[in-house]
Amino acid sequence: MDALDLLKEQHDEVNTLFKKFEKLEEGSTAELRELFVMIADRLSAHATIEEQFFYPSIKTDKTEDLIREAVEEHLGVKRIIADLLEMEPSDEQFAAKMKVLMENVEHHVEEEEDEMFKLVRKVLDKDQRFALGVQMKAEFDELMKGEPRNEVPMQTDEAAPV
């Protein structure tokens, strides 16, 4: 799989989970917690494969500043996740922190897909992106092993259990 397609797929997956979280905001604490943990696990694994494989593979003079900024954005997201892991969804600050997390991730994804991906297509050819994607997918899958609910719940109109 092309590395850019993999990252886009993961971005979309987390976005779907964020939307599900927003719909469940009035749901039970256990459901909200479980969904948050799914989001946190995916974001953590995603950041890991970007930092270990993707960013080093695309580093050039043209991408260096974008990569530096992306790593700082990852750090900010990790700090928010760490705070959220220490809280219960019933905490009055939990929803506010989740909103900030969503906004930070959305901003990061926009910059990555709108700016960085265009430069990557100039830096890596299709075969290089495919080989990188295979490597990144294997590491992501390994990181997600043993995590509860390795699949994103299907979107439905009904309130399905998480």
In terms of topology, how is this protein built?
Blueprint (H helix, E strand, L loop, with lengths): L2 H21 L5 H30 L5 H22 L8 H30 L2 H19 L18
Helix pairs in contact: 1-2, 1-4, 1-5, 2-3, 2-5, 3-4
**DSSP E strands, number:** 0
Radius of gyration: 16 Å
What is the count of helical runs?
Answer: 5
β-sheet strand percentage: under 5%
CATH class bucket: Mainly Alpha
Secondary structural class: mainly alpha
Helix amount: over 70%
State the low-pLDDT regions, or none: 149-162
Pfam family, one: Hemerythrin
InterPro entries: Hemerythrin-like
Organism: Hyalangium minutum
Protein name: Regulator of cell morphogenesis and NO signaling
Essential attributes:
mainly alpha, Regulator of cell morphogenesis and NO signaling, 162 residues, 5 helices
Written overview of the protein:
This protein is mostly helical. The protein has one domain (3-144): nmb1532 protein domain like (Four Helix Bundle (Hemerythrin (Met), subunit A)), CATH 1.20.120.520. It has helices at 3-23, 29-58, 64-85, 94-123, 126-144. Residues 149-162 have low confidence and may be disordered. Keywords: Coiled coil.
